[in-house]
Amino acid sequence: MGKNNTIILLQFAVLAIVLTMVKEATSIPICNIDTNDLEKCRAAVTGNNPPAPGPDCCAVARSANLQCLCPYKPYLSSFGINPSKVRPLLAKCGINSPPSCFSA
């Protein structure tokens, strides 16, 4: 495992611990998203036939630093987010040039 992968895994572990400790009482900014705001998009990225994202979700998606989120993509499912649903959500929100990590 390379040094960069180790650093990313450590960052994720710390993030997971912090999120577990603060639950929903406190919002933590990550990649220009407050963690509590992720709930606005949960329905649109879960299940077999998710509904279209709402305006609040699209506002969150547009404000996010998507490139910053790329290292966290492998861990999205642990937060109940289906990674294969992210690209369609972005397209429905008018974000037609997502970073390559969300293009596949």
Automatic annotation (TrEMBL):
SUPFAM superfamilies assigned to the protein according to its UniProt record, in alphabetical order: Bifunctional inhibitor/lipid-transfer protein/seed storage 2S albumin
Entries under Gene3D superfamilies matching the protein: Plant lipid-transfer and hydrophobic proteins
Protein name (Swiss-Prot/TrEMBL): Lipid-transfer protein DIR1
Keywords: Signal
PANTHER family, alphabetized: BIFUNCTIONAL INHIBITOR_LIPID-TRANSFER PROTEIN_SEED STORAGE 2S ALBUMIN SUPERFAMILY PROTEIN, LIPID BINDING PROTEIN-RELATED
Stretches assigned to the Bifunctional inhibitor/plant lipid transfer protein/seed storage helical domain: 31-101
Signal peptide, first to last residue: 1-27
Organism: Camelina sativa
Domain of life: Eukaryota
